[in-house]
Amino acid sequence: MNRRALLKIIGGSAVLGLAGCLTRRDDSGTEQPNNTTQSPEDTDDNDTTGTDSGSPGPRLTNSSFEVISTECGTEKAESSAAFESNSVRVSGTINGSNTCYTAKLKRATCEEKTLTVSVQSYERETDDLCSMCVTDIEYEASFEFENGLPQRTVVVHNGSEVLNEPRE
To answer: Is residue 11 assigned to a domain?
Structure first.
């Protein structure tokens, strides 16, 4: 048996096994969140629109989306919505295949008094090592409205509905 080949394999495996969950950190050691703020006009492949019916119902005027944390987790897929005076706040956890995954607001629409929020996880391009673990990606989003608020909020993660909540 070739001992050198065996030691190379064991040494490489040990480094990957000890890598743990990696997060992107700045020089001070704190996590760097993935922040985006967008208005309906500046959404390249994202689609964030208000109602098209011309009725005086709720009209989506602005949105923001921020990734709060990315870490190895338990494969959570959850979301909640809070209705405020002229906005709806959505927070949740979507999962990714490894620690190089993050999330983005894919689409937000308000039609027939229902806010539909679509969040997508994707693998970001990075030179960092990625830990192989199911990754929980926590996010917060805010949606501002004119002419009142929607009566219902629906949240979709990677094509699967995780929340369908009426306004109380």
So the answer is: no
